Amino acid sequence: MDQVTRAGEPIVELSGVEVRAGNRVLVTGIDLSVSDGEVVTLIGPNGAGKTTLIRAALGLIQPSAGISRRRDGARIGYMPQRLNIDRNMPLTVRRFLGLAGAFEPGARARVLEETGIARIIDSPVHDISGGEWQRTLLARALLREPDLLVLDEPAQAVDLTGQAELYRLIGEIRDRRGCGVLMVSHDLHLVMSSTDHVVCINTHLCCAGTPDTVSRDPSYVAMFGESVAETMALYHHNHDHAHGVDGSIVHEHGHDRHG
Q1: Is the pLDDT of residue 230 over 70?
Q2: 20-58 burial by CB neighbour count: b if 16+ within 10 A, else e?
């Protein structure tokens, strides 16, 4: 690939990617790309190869076949699916973010405000809620001022209200920063309003397109069940309010609401 960034060049691009573990095919024949300001969501059932594909996109593993390209000089912020921390380690949110390495002056204050976790900055990481932990991981990824934000199941261990708010926040971050977002999820109905393009895989490429298109694709319906259309309709709506990190309603029709 040319070393000079071309206008409109994707941040990351996979073409015909296959990954094997011995004789076992983990993913095969996958095409995927993410450009600036675009949210691409990778969905599929457990064992479909979603995390494997993310690792190939990040260059953490080499494809057995096909090509994985990343734009020269692109900064990537990665939010892993799991990050185990020894519970015996006295680690605050402040210290955890400090372990992310060197970052620009003022960057920590910006990401704390952006993710809504400033009030827990001195809390031990083992005492915060699941939603606060996910936002802390998101803040850590944002410290890199990424061109591409890679989020592997960012809403796991978060209740439905918190999941919707987290996906809304991810959309706001894309709008504000103009970065690309590559996100893994298994719940299309939750990410419909915050994603531009969906790639559905089950080891191989099943279907791809806009959320509405994928939700009606026979391959998607066969994979997730006939009731998927009703489920999609239930969740595909606009909220007239917003929730805080703890799930409480903090904004409704321009007014604060407590309780």
Answers
A1: no
A2: eeeeebbbbebebbbbbebbbbbbbeeebbbbbbbbbbb
